[in-house]
Write a structure and sequence with these properties.
eight-stranded antiparallel beta sheet; 122 residues; homotetramer; mainly beta; TM1070-like_sf (chains A, B, C, D); Hypothetical Protein Tm1070, Chain: A
Chain lengths: 122, 122, 122, 122
């Protein structure tokens, strides 16, 4: 088995609804795949007051990274809504490493935050 | 037992006393509950120069997240004071995942910080 | 033994030399002591191009937090210099939890960063 | 073996292409070497759409820190390109501690983010 963990948790998800200045508000799920094979990443989104959106997917090539924009994820026409607090479970078809970053440019200057996702004990 | 940890620590708590611009200064304890049952979250707040506030609670539904505003937590009429450094111990009645984020808009533009809470070894 | 870890590492230390706006640039080592007894915290600072400053201390009461300003730490008249990259080793006389945060107000608006310190395996 | 881990992962790398205001946009890989001997740090960079850049190196003296600017790393004339998402694998010739921080001054005011790198299980 290659290096990394299969399952990662990001409790604080939020796509800022507005942007100003040069940079657009966004979140990225940054995945590193150190194996030689392509990995499928499955993202489940959990909300405060509605059913989860399960089974959104993206791919990461072998020996590649993919900084996945959460606003681009979708399944059966469903997208993560903007301006709504949510949380994510990120699962790889093989071991991966996951970091989460948000750029908020709601106000004129940008604000950044980043955390390593939390690996679920296996 | 479902996925997660029972007890989490956040040493750097601080509710900024002032806000400016479009967004209000606040902190959130972001909890994900992957189980199928509602979880009760108990928050204890520890201070530099006074007795702890113990036993503030919030709930998180099954397969739901709750981004708990620290300014809303209270017990027996006691709230976490603004503008005072403190620390938190966050305990779930069942396993949870916990991230802490702060938006500080004391000055005209917002600043963001976030950390995964630290899981206490069981 | 009470909850926590004895030794924590913070590789990215930096006290911004200048401030502007309402808030002063600073770093905090935020310590939570869940035990019933006072804990002594020892901070060692390591630099890129000079000898370490070893044995700066602070205390944290039982069931208390202390958000230690790095600019206040000193030993034998030596302080951590401003505007110089450094790293820290933080050791408790009993188990503690440690988070590191920096407020940089070099420019007109403040920027925030925070990480949980890294616990040394025991 | 001295304290620390041999291998660390940083999934979210990005060198902002532009700067404004007093501070230059940059990333730092902050390494602490608690041993008494110099350590060689090897950085591999992985991209979304091109082959990795492998084998960039820097050194950290014994009982010293080195806040390595990613823009200075290079091997055989190859540098990490600016404005391109990437990920890093950081390996020490002996155990080290690693934190990653980014200062983004694309807009007039700076934004900061920092994470502890993720230690690969050994």
């Amino acid at each position: 088995m290659s290096k990394g963990q299969l399952q990662w948790i990001i409790p604080d998800g939020y796509i800022p609804p507005t942007s100003s200045g040069q940079l657009e508000s966004h979140e990225s799920i940054c995945v590193l795949n150190l194996s030689g094979e392509e990995v499928t990443v499955t993202v489940n989104a959990f909300f405060e007051d509605r059913e989860p959106i399960l089974g959104m997917t993206a791919t990461v090539g072998g020996q590649r990274t993919h900084h996945i924009r959460t606003a681009h994820l979708n399944v059966e026409g469903k997208y993560i809504p903007k301006g709504v607090p949510y949380a994510m479970e990120v699962t790889g078809s093989a071991p991966i490493f996951v970091q989460y970053s948000r750029l908020d440019s709601t106000q004129a200057e940008n604000a950044l935050m980043s955390v390593m996702a939390f690996p679920v004990k296996e």
